[in-house]
Design brief:
This protein is α+β, with helices and mostly antiparallel strands and 545 residues long. The protein folds into two domains: 211 residues, Beta-galactosidase, Chain A, domain 5 (Distorted Sandwich), CATH 2.70.98; 252 residues, Glycosidases (TIM Barrel, Alpha-Beta Barrel), CATH 3.20.20. Helix content is 18%, strand content 31%. It has nine helices and 25 strands. The strands form three sheets. Strands 24-23-22-21-18-17-16-25 form an eight-stranded parallel sheet. A five-stranded antiparallel β-barrel has the order 2-3-5-6-7. Strands 19-20 form a two-stranded antiparallel ribbon. A hairpin with a 5-residue loop joins strand 11 and strand 12. Helix 5 runs parallel beside helix 6.
């Protein structure tokens, strides 16, 4: 985290014990409130703050602008803030600073663990940030606890659409409040809507909250007509009926980035047949990472790979699986392609993902070639909302579906999000999914990882185990194991860049569909574990389907 090298001297206002300051950040500077031009009034459990001029540079300079805030307490005793602001330049975000706190720990409601905030502070992101990916939030809600006090302080933003929220925590470095702690609540406008005026969605601040109740409060909002459109799993109609009968997922690794072959199409079919002899094929989803050839390298030009069995082998895999009732799910990159392919200029040059200030987004940079350089300039990250890329990916996917007859599609890295000034990433994914399933009601589209906005688009996800999915996600979606999870014979992660890790079978839960992965040799060397997972799938079917 960076800090100014001087005291910004933000005025602090008392809202029923909450000590709050405010900042307006434009595309060219950071502004606070001029206390000499601010009126702050209280009446019958409500507060009004009106500032008619902004200050900056530690109150040394002033600039035209306006800031208004209405605050009330709701029926749960929580403080609800509604903010509007105006400035001389386009406003990027508005910040609420919760100040004069004792030493704090950040509380993770999913793991029920706390992380004490150190001297350097920390930043938490919603919906996704690649650099701080360990600090990503699934919903715009955040908890801290003052270490010497009981009960949590909790904050949520009740926004009707997916927009950037950031939460920063740190001890104050300068000024009268040095040594006390601050929590920043930041709402950023959609970059395509930057203007010199902004209306901030409601912030809700709660003391001594019960975390589960506070999360449910947000989820109730998100399901409401004013929310983002969350729909419970039992009520979802945006998937084929067969998808609710899946009880086993087979992750069948094809070809590694380097060209190493884990399973040919015929070997994949052998594994599928074994499973279908022990559980009903209609309950099996066969997920195929690296089916198109060199994993990631081939992204953007999808076709069966000759070394895996070519068109005939892939056709046989799809046809024979279909006879068994098994659903084949090839993997496609939702937003990542090989920019060195000859077809890239036809769809990619105007579709790059960009940050709000138009820096080109480059997503993850695995050390694919083990050069230890992490130099992946051949990868381009494209916005699925860009018409050229959305049209091209839809064309490739639907052409392959029509030719080979598979009825499932996996969209890799769908969780990558930026505040793109040209096309809304989340809405772009919704458009992509709708284009793929148009006139194809029996097609399931699954995505990698999730946040609440993606739960409104996709019904099934591959989710990383160390992110500790909260139990409430099962209210909206089902999960399968992530492809980085090891297979049981030697701990290989197959096509994934992680390489190796310990095989750790997951526990039976309603929101998690039993999954097992296969590389070369897994089928022969770990058949006993395969049988255990099939038994778990049959148990899952009896309990939950």
């Amino acid at each position: 985290m960076q800090f100014f090298s001087f005291d910004f001297r933000d005025p602090i206002y008392n809202f029923d014990g909450w000590k709050l300051s405010f900042q307006i950040i434009t595309l060219e500077n950071t502004y606070g409130l001029n206390p000499e031009k601010t009126q702050f009034t209280q009446e019958d459990g409500s507060w009004k703050l009106v500032c008619e001029e902004l200050s900056f540079a530690g109150q040394q300079q002033q600039k035209p602008g306006r800031f208004t805030l209405q605050a009330v307490t709701n029926d749960q005793g929580q403080l609800v803030l509604k903010i509007s602001a105006e400035a001389s330049h386009k406003i990027r975000c508005v910040k609420v600073l919760v100040r004069e706190l004792d030493a704090i720990a950040v509380y993770n409601a999913s793991t029920e663990k706390e992380d004490v905030v150190g001297a350097a502070g920390d930043i938490y992101h919603y919906p996704y940030n690649w650099i701080h990916r360990e600090n990503n939030l699934k919903i715009p809600a955040f908890f801290v606890r003052e270490i010497d006090k009981d009960g949590c302080l909790a904050f949520q933003c009740q926004d009707h659409k997916v927009r950037d929220k950031r939460f920063a925590v740190y001890p104050e470095k300068m000024g009268a409040n040095t040594g006390t702690y601050t929590v920043e609540l930041i709402h950023e406008e959609s970059a395509s809507k930057f203007d010199d005026k902004i209306d901030v969605p409601a912030w809700v601040l709660g003391r001594n909250v019960e975390p589960t109740a506070f999360l449910n409060q947000y989820l109730e909002f998100a399901e409401s007509p004013n929310g983002i459109g969350l729909i419970p799993w039992k009520d979802r109609t945006d998937m084929p009926s067969w998808a609710k009968q899946i009880s086993l997922c087979l992750t069948l690794h094809g070809m590694h980035w380097s060209g190493y072959i884990f399973n040919t199409y015929d070997q994949m079919l052998e594994i599928i047949r074994y499973a279908a002899e022990r559980t009903d094929g209609k309950n099996i989803l066969a997920y195929l990472p690296g089916w198109e050839g060199r994993y990631y390298w081939q992204y953007g030009d999808y076709r069966p790979d000759p070394l895996l069995g070519g068109e005939e082998g892939f056709q046989r895999l799809c046809e024979e699986s279909r006879k068994l009732g098994v659903h084949i799910m090839p993997m496609f990159g939702a937003n990542c392609v090989n920019a060195w392919f000859s077809n890239f200029p036809q769809y990619g040059t105007d579709a790059n993902m960009k940050t709000a200030s138009r820096n080109q987004y480059h997503g993850n940079v695995p050390d694919w070639d083990l050069s230890r350089s992490h130099d992946t300039g051949w990868q381009a990250w494209l916005n699925p909302g860009a018409p050229s890329w959305q049209t091209e990916l839809t064309r490739q996917v639907t052409r392959l579906m029509d030719r080979y007859g598979f009825d499932s599609v996996f969209l890799d890295t769908a969780h990558h999000w930026v505040n793109d000034p040209d096309f809304d990433v989340c809405q772009g994914l919704k458009g992509l999914k709708n284009a793929i399933v148009k006139d194809r009601p029996d097609v399931l589209v699954t995505a990698e990882n999730w946040y609440d906005g993606l739960l409104t688009i996709f019904p099934t996800f591959q989710s990383r185990p160390f992110l500790k999915n909260p139990s409430w996600v099962g209210r909206y979606a089902r999960m399968v194991a992530h492809l980085l999870e090891a297979e049981p014979s030697r701990g290989s992660t197959g096509v994934h860049e992680l390489g190796y890790c310990q095989y750790e079978p997951r526990q039976l839960k309603e929101e998690y569909i039993p999954t097992i992965a296969f590389v070369d040799g897994t089928f022969e060397q770990a058949k006993a574990e395969f049988d255990k997972v099939i038994d778990m799938a049959n148990h899952y079917k009896r309990m939950f389907l």
